[in-house]
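Thread: Newbie trying to understand structure tokens

Hi all, I'm a second-year student working on a class project, and my supervisor (Dr. K.) asked me to get a predicted structure for one chain before our next meeting. I've only ever worked with sequences, so writing a 3D structure as a token string is new to me. If someone could post the tokens and maybe explain what I'm looking at, I'd be very grateful. Here's the chain:
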Amino acid sequence: MKIITDSAADITTQQAENMKIEIVPIRIQFGTRECPMDTEEDFDDFFRQLQQSRELPKTSQPSPQEYLCLFSEAQQVDEEVLVITLSSGLSGTINAAQLARSISGYEKIWILDSEQAITTQRYLVERAAALRDEGQDAAQIAEYLSDLRRKMTVCGMLDTLTYLKMGGRIPAALAFLGNTLHIKPVIELRDKKLVMLGKARGRKSAIQCLWKEFEEKKPDDSHPVYFGYTLDREFGQEFMEMTRKRYGLKNCRLVPVGGVIGTHVGPSCIAISFVHK
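---
Reply by user tm_fold:
Sure, no problem. This is what the structure looks like when written as tokens:
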């Protein structure tokens, strides 16, 4: 089976090779310069560039041709294909995959809208690879993931309002005032889109908001809790350790977030993701 996802899952090239999966890139460009997202070092380099830039980089979804090449490879060896895309509420990536499937005429292709991004998308891909290795077929895995994706939550804290301003989501005056008052937006991926949960005064208050969401959703401890961060690994590690001790977590993991979603949230963000009951 060929498992394909896009770079919004923040899986590095080496990790993809280890899992035996394929990554189709969502490209990121500062002007004419493309930013690779192949390694964790690339993630950090991207955020350093973002901090120095006066404009947000441009992102572009994969072309149908990129999917079509992978579908053709699978068809030649009569291999099943499972595609897990970034949430359709955030990108049209799934449309490119669906068009490629239509062009290919190959029937053994399953395309799943993850309805997720970053750490939750990553977890769906990891579960797919594990189930494939256990011998399940693409239809079985797609059905399992279709159920799992609706039980997943990812929410996070933005460290600054600057990138919301640069993206035209809030006025410059509001961003200036918010940054002066140390306002930290708290966001969640809900119904396929990013929504604002609230605005906290300072990091400590923002973390309390994340903990409140974690408690209210009642996490299923048979699944791991993932913690994400942009650029500031020390802050991400600190948040994970505080949460682990507070709730007695036995299975948690810290992973970096790359530029696809990072473009819109900026550096020094933290996130928590989990499967709820």
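A couple of things are worth pointing out once you decode it. The mean pLDDT is 93. The chain has eleven helices and 13 strands. Feel free to ask follow-ups in this thread.
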